[in-house]
Design a protein that fits this description.
Helix content: 10-25%
Structural class: mainly beta
Distance between the termini: 88 Å
Order of helices and strands: HEEHEEEEEEEEEEEEEE
Number of domains: 2
Shape: elongated
Radius of gyration: 27 Å
Number of helices: 2
Length: about 250
């Protein structure tokens, strides 16, 4: 009887072992390493609209205005259009000082791509935005008012079960605010979005630049107000530009 019990137990154990060995493994997810910079693989700083100054979340302007820069990874199965890409992972803070222009990918710096099997090719884009960080806007970065935004070129990445760097990422700049100058008879109509900017004019691109005084609309957040002013036509003035003053909004 004891021998039969041992034989039965041994049979059960062998059956369980066979079931474990033959079990289907959990489906692996593709992984991306979102660090920038990543020595030997990625070095793509992001710039202000001037294309020269790297984004710095703690420079004088950002501290005065209570704004910062956030980077967000977007991924999709096709590059037919940018709207086919969806945000993946959480927004990443852009650095300051020596780390200006780059983002803090966190620890770990790996993003899992839901529903994407290792070996599949995906299309990737990084978008940077300057946002206000007032406490009353809530924890979701997409509810923050946006001051500026820029995006990298869309590039392809062949995924793997091991984290793959963003090797196709290239530098990009934030987009300048919309600004138009139109002549109407003897008047110039200047129109732009964001009355927190000052407007300047000059006879040439080299200057000298002088500020045009105007009274912005009141009662609304000036960063989202359309401003329109008119100026008499001056044949000696051919250049106009917007400039961010180093003063707080509120």
């Amino acid at each position: 009887m004891k021998s039969r019990s041992r034989g039965l137990l041994r049979s059960i154990l062998l059956t369980v072992a066979a079931a474990v060995v033959g079990a289907e493994p959990a489906c692996a997810q593709a992984l991306l390493d979102v660090r920038n910079p990543l020595p030997g693989s990625v070095d793509a700083p992001v710039y202000l609209a001037d294309g020269v100054t790297r984004l710095d979340s703690q420079d004088a302007v950002r501290r005065m205005w209570g704004s910062t820069f956030l980077a967000q990874l977007f991924v999709g199965p096709t590059n037919v259009a940018e709207f086919a890409l969806a945000p993946v992972g959480i927004p990443m803070n852009v650095g300051t000082g020596e780390d200006a222009g780059y983002w803090d990918a966190g620890n770990p710096s790996v993003v899992e791509l839901p529903g994407v099997e290792p070996g599949a090719t995906v299309f990737v884009q990084v978008r940077d935005r300057e946002v206000y960080l007032f406490n009353d806007w809530g924890p979701d970065s997409y509810s923050y008012p946006i001051l500026g935004i820029g995006a990298s070129e869309v590039f392809s990445v062949r995924t793997d079960s091991a984290p793959v760097p963003l090797r196709g990422l290239s530098s990009f700049s934030l987009e300048p605010p919309p600004f138009s100058v139109r002549r109407d008879g003897n008047l110039l109509r200047l129109e732009w979005t964001g009355c927190h900017y000052s407007i300047e004019r000059a006879p040439s691109a080299a200057g000298p630049w002088t500020r045009i005084d105007y009274t912005p609309p009141t009662g609304r957040d000036p960063a989202f107000v359309s401003c329109v002013i008119t100026q008499p036509v001056d044949e000696q003035v051919t250049f106009y530009r917007l400039k961010r003053p180093v003063t707080p909004l509120r």
